[in-house]
């Protein structure tokens, strides 16, 4: 379970993500909110090993946000972790902007891969994991994907290939919110049965609640003695934290109108002054 302090901090992050995206004029809010607890846990609950004074420490763990449209969540957590400044975060889509809606290596030394064009993050992660193995590094590579993203063929090239190389340092995280850009995943491709599919290619598959940070952490850090790459299926709610957005496909890439804005302000604790 998330502590009361963590719940407060997560609410503040959701608020900051919304205000930043609203002022910028565009944002994938629902995708940010489904993945927020997991990204928070990666950077702030001791999952990722990194050195705040050395972004390119050789044995750091790597995190790749393959579902790059949730970049405002990643950058928001990075700011809270002290990896980027508040000024950089607030510059989002303003004149002279220092960050965009999707992670870019040009923006920060802490970004391990430029993403946003869906379907490529796992392949990049596989290459990095293989290189780390060759260097005898203890570092791990974590790649977060969306379930809609798994309809990209390039993802499956990496899924099929990874077990052959024994990359047990590669951990894929599936933000399984059951919604893609225009509709529910099930209505688009039928019942996916992700666990069975990944297992059939030789992956070690685990499942957890992506909004319960302790459960997520325990799952992702559990012993992996299989010698195989791992998939953690994290069940989430798209738009988590705002009632009209939760589990609603219409909010993939949308900002609220006047009436809808009232709900966001009430549920996230936002004042009129903060939106100016």
TrEMBL record:
GO terms, molecular function: transketolase activity
Alphabetical list of Pfam families matching this protein: Transketolase_N
Keywords in alphabetical order: Thiamine pyrophosphate, Transferase
Domain Transketolase N-terminal: start-end pairs: 35-272
SUPFAM superfamilies in alphabetical order: Thiamin diphosphate-binding fold (THDP-binding)
Cofactors: thiamine diphosphate
Enzyme class: transferase
InterPro entries: THDP-binding, Transketolase_N
EC number from the UniProt entry: 2.2.1.1
UniProt record similarity statement: Belongs to the transketolase family.
Protein name: Transketolase, N-terminal subunit
């Amino acid at each position: 379970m998330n502590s009361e302090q963590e719940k407060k901090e997560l609410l503040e992050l959701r608020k900051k993500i919304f205000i930043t995206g609203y002022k910028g004029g565009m944002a994938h809010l629902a995708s940010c909110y489904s993945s927020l607890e997991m990204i928070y846990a990666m950077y702030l609950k001791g999952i990722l090993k990194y050195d705040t004074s050395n972004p390119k420490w050789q044995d750091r763990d790597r995190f790749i946000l393959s579902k790059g449209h949730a970049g405002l969540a990643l950058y928001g957590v990075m700011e809270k972790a002290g990896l980027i400044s508040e000024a950089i975060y607030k510059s989002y889509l303003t004149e002279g902007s220092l960050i965009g809606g999707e992670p870019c290596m040009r923006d920060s030394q802490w970004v391990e891969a430029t993403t946003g064009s869906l379907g490529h993050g796992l392949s990049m992660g596989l290459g990095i994991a293989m290189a780390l193995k060759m260097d005898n590094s203890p570092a791990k590579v974590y790649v977060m994907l969306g379930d809609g993203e798994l309809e990209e063929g390039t993802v499956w090239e990496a899924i099929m290939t990874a077990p052959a190389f024994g990359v047990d340092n590669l951990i894929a995280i599936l933000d399984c919110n059951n919604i893609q850009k225009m509709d529910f995943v099930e209505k688009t491709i039928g019942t996916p049965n992700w666990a069975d599919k990944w297992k059939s290619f030789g992956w070690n598959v685990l499942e957890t609640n992506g909004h319960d940070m302790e459960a997520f952490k325990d799952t992702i850090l559990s012993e992996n003695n299989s010698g195989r790459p791992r998939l953690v299926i994290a069940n989430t709610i798209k738009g988590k934290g705002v009632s009209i957005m939760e589990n609603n496909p219409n909010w993939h890439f949308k900002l609220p109108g006047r009436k809808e804005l009232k709900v966001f302000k009430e549920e996230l604790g936002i004042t009129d002054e903060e939106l100016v």
